Amino acid sequence: MEQQVLEKLKLTPIPLIENTGECVIKLSGISWQRFKQLDACLDGIKSLRLTYVTGRLEIMTISSKHERLKTTIGYLLEAYMRENGIRFYGSGGFTLMKEGESSGEPDESYCIGKDKDIPDIVIEVIITSGSIKKLDIYKSKNVAEVWFWKSEQLRIFHLKGNDYQEIPRSKFLPELDLDILLRYTQYQDQYDAVQDFVKAIQKNAPDY
């Protein structure tokens, strides 16, 4: 059955699914070589996301809600850094891969201070959960911070030694109140969300 689904995926472009209509195909016992073959077959289908860690593969469809949310979070974060004179470089959702072991794409990623090969911050928006631990992917590439949005909450994990620890605020943006940022992600209108957030920053209001 899974093989039939994969064959269909290779042949049929899958459009963005409205609302929360995401789904996940979970496969195990997949060699790195097989993963690379599947990745090549599905290349170019933007509404699919492949995640691989040591033999486990997940193929997830990405909904329009997911795309809007990750873009809104990115816009707000960039507005905050610009208004506070924080030099940053957006890396987008390029693939972070450790050959033979893991591969995954963050929704957004940023280097702080100067441009680097590995981003300082990656952002993951989770609408539909898979079973693969995304932190394993980012730990293998020594990504300093991983931000997870899920169920109207934003959690930050910072790499300390060989493992991630949850922290209340970003080490790179210690003055950023996550609860305030979340307030603007709930706006129905993305443009208004960014405009109001910028006005609040400029006024230096204690509650943004």
Would you give an account of this structure?
33% of the residues lie in helices and 26% in strands. The chain has 208 residues and is α+β, with helices and mostly antiparallel strands. The strands form two sheets. Strands 4-7-8-9-10-11 form a six-stranded mixed β-sheet, sandwiched between helices. The protein contains six helices and eleven strands. Helix 3 packs across helix 5 and helix 3 runs parallel beside helix 6 (190-203). It is globular and about 55 Å long.
For the record, what CATH class of the largest domain applies?
Answer: Alpha Beta
Class from helix and strand fractions: alpha+beta
The number of distinct β-strands equals 11
**Proportion of β residues?**
25-35%
Low-confidence stretches: 8-20
Number of helical segments with 4 or more residues: 6
Give the strand line-up of the largest sheet.
Answer: 4-7-8-9-10-11
CATH names the topology of the largest domain as tt1808, chain A
How many separate domains make up the residues? 2
* C-alpha end-to-end distance: 51 Å
Furnish the topology, listing elements before pairings.
Layout lengths: L1 H10 L12 E4 L4 H10 L6 E6 L2 E6 L2 H20 L4 E3 L5 E3 L3 E3 L3 E5 L8 E6 L7 H7 L4 E6 L2 E8 L2 E5 L10 H8 L4 H14 L5
Parallel strand pairs: 8-9
Antiparallel strand pairs: 1-3, 2-3, 2-6, 4-7, 5-6, 7-8, 9-10, 10-11
